[in-house]
Amino acid sequence: MNKAIITVVGKDTVGILAKTCTYLAENGINILDIAQTVVQGYFNMMMVVDLPETSRPFGEIAGGLAKTGEEMGLQVKCQKAEIFEKMHRI
Fold it and tell me: Which among 37, 32, 1 is positioned nearest to 17, based on CA atoms?
């Protein structure tokens, strides 16, 4: 599996989950796990996703997610899960 971690943070508004998931679906990205919360009007979501073996490079997918976030006034980051796994091996 080619896993990645996606985080979404910002002021809560209608359609955050829908727009983020639409981008993922359009790019064949499967959500493996998801957690979200709203605290005093601020939205926070973390997803673990499976990136398919596509012709699109990881940087392009991460950039597209960041752009989708900007359009909603949010910060969206996508990082390879292997970074987190290697950090905890030390």
Answer: 37
Which tokens hold the place of 6?
């996606």
Superfamily of the domain at 3-87: ACT domain (3.30.70.260)
| pLDDT above 80: residue 4 | yes
Token output for 81: 């899960």
71, two tokens: 């359009």
Q: Tell me if residue 5 falls in helix, strand or coil.
A: strand
> Alpha carbon of 67 to those of 39, 52, 60, 87, 88: distances in Å?
24, 20, 10, 27, 30
**Residues 49 and 55 sit within 8 Å (Cβ to Cβ):** no
Other CB atoms within 10 Å distance of the CB of residue 24: 21
- Whole-model pTM: value is 0.89
pLDDT bin (cut points 50, 70, 90) of residue 53 is confident
